[in-house]
Amino acid sequence: MTNVPSPVSVHGGHSGQFCCHANNSLEEIVRAYIDLGYPWVGITEHMPPASDAYLYPEEKQAGLDADALMERFAEYMTVCRSLQAKYVDRIEILVGFETEYYEGSIDLARRLIGQFSPDYVVGSVHHVQEIPFDYSPKKYREAADRCGGLDELYNAYFDQQFEMLQALKPNVVGHLDLIRIYDPGYSTRLVKPNIWGKILRNLELVRQLGLILDFNLRPLSKGEKEPYLSAPILKQAIDMGIDVVPGDDSHGVDTIGRYMPTAIEMLQAAGARTNWRRPADRS
């Protein structure tokens, strides 16, 4: 009998308790992973903003500011550590957080690492030219316009990602090709020589640093055909010997595990190793 790889998530666990655009309590999220038989899961709530300038509209509507979000983040770390201990006999919880990349974010991320000693960090980029491009199609167009077009937006994104990887050396690279989020022509744009060259450069740095790539299932929950990583990036990463591990990027119990069988099939078909490496382990 062929062994079926275990479901795991290297990037998941956003909860309504600590994220304004998610649902359910963090304990409900953890119990859902347990019920679905996950041997381990990484919980990776967002870091707080470096200043009020980077508040999202939903956070402003909730009456939150950067100081309040810092307090909420500290509570998240405390609650997540308590759940880690409470359920230690049922699941291995890795307590982490997801970074940003804009002015002041790297210094803040380093302070958070020093203060809270997370088990690991997911390095993500959600802003280009200080604009949260993944928040809405309108913000995406605004970021592209500021860069001078879609190709230039992609180039700026992958340059910022490279800088983030150099600065933080995160254990996991979150949704490497997130920049495609509102671009229906991404499949041809990603492989344009200038853009593909930057992707290859970034992947080589990932390989050199021994980082894990997040095979992020969030697009599937929105009706898209493939996760982040898109097929050519996935193939290139596997050819380079880079570890690729599923991340459900769950924002509530309803998306936990839903697309994991599809992800595992896709990774197996692409030739990825399915003895999943924990993000707290360096290769």
From TrEMBL:
InterPro entries per record: Histidinol_P_phosphatase_HisJ, PHP_dom, Pol/histidinol_Pase-like
Keyword Zinc: no
EC numbers: 3.1.3.15
Organism of provenance: Desulfosarcina widdelii
Name this polypeptide is given: Histidinol-phosphatase
Annotated PHP domain residues: 14-216
Pathway membership: Amino-acid biosynthesis; L-histidine biosynthesis; L-histidine from 5-phospho-alpha-D-ribose 1-diphosphate: step 8/9
Similarity annotation: Belongs to the PHP hydrolase family. HisK subfamily.
Catalytic activity: L-histidinol phosphate + H2O = L-histidinol + phosphate
Single annotated GO MF: histidinol-phosphatase activity
An individual GO BP term: L-histidine biosynthetic process
GO CC annotations on file: cytoplasm
Keywords: Amino-acid biosynthesis, Histidine biosynthesis, Hydrolase
